[in-house]
Amino acid sequence: MNHETLAVESAVKERYAAGALAQEAALCCPVSYDPQYLKVIPDEVIERDYGCGDPSRHLHPGETVLDLGSGTGKICFIAAQVVGPSGKVIGIDMTDAMLDCARRNAPVVAERIGYANVEFRKGRIQDLALDLERLDAELSARPIDGADGFLAAEERANELRMKHPLVATGTIDVVVSNCVLNLVEPRAKRQLFEEIFRVLKVGGRAVISDIVSDEAVPAELQRDPELWSGCISGSLTEPGFLEAFERAGFHGIRLLKRDPEPWRTVGGIEFRAVTLEAYKGKQGPCFERNQAVIYKGPFKQVLDDDEHLMARGERHAVCDKTFRLFSSAPYREHFEFVEPLTPIPLEEAQPFDCGRTERRHPRESKGQAYDATSEAAQCRDGGSACC
Ligand SMILES: C[S@@+](CC[C@H](N)C(=O)[O-])C[C@H]1O[C@@H](n2cnc3c(N)ncnc32)[C@H](O)[C@@H]1O
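Above: query sequence and S-adenosylmethionine SMILES. Below: predicted holo structure tokens.
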């Protein structure tokens, strides 16, 4: 038996159904959450904490948040308080007992914080378009009978994905997850990252805490259902985890936290928790507006996710899209920004070849005819002269 024949999803569902009913210490990787947010969360939720990090620390008021594999709802209930009444939180889980516990406690938390901004939906995180409760209702009305019935049910599922998606495309500011991505079986992993990308708005981001390994997980560990549901067998390697986001089209990918100590070591392979952030929004047309960026250092040069190689201290020509990307998180603090003296309105801008890396001569920013001579300017910090 290999992981292809091992019923990974059933093993995971069975383990977490039991973990929803009674606390299982082996599934817990100790995490310290901000205690101010825990006060309103009922004990049965907190006791069944199977997370490995705290993505909720990286949320902001007003955001719409999607939590993948929300379990009994702890991260959703913390996020509800961070995003506040103008924000919204959606938890997704496939295990009924987890959803029951989360839904039972949602009104309790809502009453304690004074508003209700959390809901829980049933789905698989690698297939965020399919609403499993709607499909359930369809299949109860027209039960599957034989192979033809099975094929008809597949058609109906596709129709539901298109007409009534569980999570619609481009609707989420931040996708978070706490110790779940590793539980998705290998053949569905690529689709999982594509789904995270699909549901995010342009400019949105993923903040994911998960278990990763320092070496590839060998086949014999992948055959063990206990290790699968225990967040071990399905772990990606540390670089593999970042690469999966890159392949799905994300940019600005970085580790926000990496536990120096492993959570578990199995056969000499270390498994530890990391929290990663990745942005959606580098796709789209490139226009020339004569803008430039200067990489401030400390490295001699850097390469971005569109293969622009930028040397420290040089003016690099960038398109309007890249200029705007670099003007916001996570890049802003690393660059200086040079706007042209005479701005080019976006409606008049010509296409820009974003595949090249080119220096921007200062004359391009100032204009070839620029011929000014001036007195010494006042320093920006309020001093009377620069030297
Ligand atoms: C390790 S627990 C983490 C729960 C929660 N995030 C926390 O911090 O306590 C994993 C959760 O993900 C759910 N899960 C695992 N694989 C899933 C999948 N493919 N789709 C949806 N939910 C999944 C399980 O039912 C379980 O509730």
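Residues 96-113 form the longest helix (18 residues).
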